[in-house]
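Q: I'm writing a short explainer about 1-deoxy-D-xylulose-5-phosphate reductoisomerase protein for a general audience and would like to include a description of its predicted shape. Could you first generate the structure from this sequence?
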Amino acid sequence: MTQKTPNSNTSRIAITGAGSGLGRELALRYAREGWRVAVTDLQSGRAKRVAGEVNAAGGDAIAQTLDTRKPEDFDALLDRIREEWGGLDVFVNNAGVSNAGSVVDTPLEDWDWMLDINLMGAVRGARAALPMLRESRGHLVNIASFAAIASAPGMSAYNVAKAGVLSLSESIRGEEYGHGVGVTVACPAFFATNLLDSFRGTNDRQRAMVEKLMRRARVSAEDVANDIYDAVRENRFLVISHRDSRWQYRFKRLSPERFFTAVRKATRSFTG
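A: Of course. Here's the predicted structure. Afterward I'll give you a sentence or two in plain language.
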């Protein structure tokens, strides 16, 4: 399928959770190319602040408060985009939360919270945006995680939610192929962000380990945003920004039992 390349003067993107972290970096990356950027976030103040940064960087922003648990918020966003821009070229399901804990230890309410935001939020976003993306032969981007591939112990609810986002992306890719809609799913490993602001967990060692891995990461949010921008432009499906993770992805496909053993050893210190 040949992906339509939007005119930079009229290109339009909407990003959930764009008030900080990767969402903000994506907003600024597209702003530097002169795109119109809908900056959405659960916190209206953050959305407005990043919208100002988008305008300063050369883009043209609108700010919208959006809770990914509310279908009506997505409807309001897409209605506004239709009215003000006439359509949409790229939609990014980025908003998410984090947690850690085993299947047994993670409370059911935390499972509901995780799946409602990280997985069903992406479902709601896709359902709202795809009709408009069909019109423009545009592109859907879902932000998953390398957790969707590694499924490391001690992060069960997060793993399941992100694996669901990966599977959702694969499904939509096939379903929308005939409509000319491209799909990209990003599966980054750890990088410095504010994801832990929303963290829920049952084990302090797990949070400490995640913080350590974020601090030591050689890949930044800006790097991941650049990779996603290139993937959308080239209509590539899977984005794995970390070099080590790309090797691990191949390792798991070639030798899943050896991969399991390696993951188990690497996480033994905080899973018991």
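A: For your explainer, you could say: Residues 1-9 have pLDDT under 50 and may be disordered.
Q: Perfect, that's easy to follow.
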